């Protein structure tokens, strides 16, 4: 009997170890650093973000050594990054999540997490399905990268020549983005009931998104049209038509979620409009009645964060002065506030 127990005990221990392996959670990661690499795509990106355990980061463009910057995460951001990295099941991730089928000019994102024990690394295709925790981590790192990118001179410029809009790089080489002939002949303004002829006298203000993946464009004419295109597809997507007036400026939010438009009025003033780009819906300016374009010029002054637009108000000659010159518009809440002096 004793010999039989000697044979059974190892088997029981092995089974218990197997159960413990399955049920007992692995110890949390303690990252010592991160590397986030974006490469490929329409623009041929080679962009590298590195972050150490203290939250200090560096960012550089592998194709232009002059485009580099550095900074530091806030304590809250550093803690959030650690938590997001710990939520990913690194030991069971494949080395690559390929896109099926792979799109043309595919963009690849690679993240490496370094720990005292080992390094974990995974590469994701631009349209590959991936686990939600990995998505959250990549979105966080992409947000840091885009904020860093926004502090650097743009890699590309937009050039309008006659009926064509081009993307130009630092060497002067140009690639056609869109021509006026590709835009619709008529379009219905958001909230309107009828279509009007699209103004096609040329291209007006245009803007490259901070992430470098989208271009907002506008046209010139009696009824200017505003829209955007994704660089990977180069297909114009109209957003709205303006009845008379014109477009003074376009501005992307830091994460490309919103597009703000400064609209000139035939009366001489200007107002604002904004769009939630993913939905293609217009967000009405909450202060239009307070600052009608017949009496005020409202201009874009930049972005406070990814959903808060700063703007400045000036009265037209003979009109009362505004309560304050500087304001913000929270696009999520649909509210405007004065900026304290």
Describe the structure.
- The chain has helices spanning 2-23, 75-86, 132-149, and strands at residues 33-40, 45-52, 56-61, 64-72, 96-97, 107-114, 119-125, 157-161, 164-168, 174-179, 186-187, 196-197, 202-203, 207-208, 214-220, 225-230, 237-241, 246-252, 258-264, 270-276, 281-283, 296-305, 308-315, 326-330, 335-338.
- It has 341 residues and is α+β, with helices and mostly antiparallel strands.
Features:
globular, 15% helix, alpha+beta, 341 residues, five-stranded antiparallel sheet, seven-stranded mixed sheet
| Distinct helical segment count | 3
Oligomer: single chain
The number of E-state strands comes to 25
Mean pLDDT: 88
Classification by helices and strands: alpha+beta
List the uncertain runs: 16-25
Strand order of the largest sheet: 4-3-2-1-6-7-5
Order of secondary-structure elements: HEEEEHEEEHEEEEEEEEEEEEEEEEEE
Content of β-strand: 35-45%
* Major β-sheet annotation: 7 strands, mixed
Distance between the termini: 89 Å
Helix content: 10-25%
Silhouette: globular
Indicate the radius of gyration in whole angstroms: 26 Å
Short summary:
With 341 residues, the chain is α+β, with helices and mostly antiparallel strands.
Helices and strands, with pairings:
Elements: H1 2-23, E1 33-40, E2 45-52, E3 56-61, E4 64-72, H2 75-86, E5 96-97, E6 107-114, E7 119-125, H3 132-149, E8 157-161, E9 164-168, E10 174-179, E11 186-187, E12 196-197, E13 202-203, E14 207-208, E15 214-220, E16 225-230, E17 237-241, E18 246-252, E19 258-264, E20 270-276, E21 281-283, E22 296-305, E23 308-315, E24 326-330, E25 335-338
Parallel strand pairs: 5-7
Antiparallel strand pairs: 1-2, 1-6, 2-3, 3-4, 6-7, 8-9, 9-10, 11-12, 13-15, 14-15, 15-16, 16-17, 18-19, 19-20, 20-21, 22-23, 23-24, 24-25
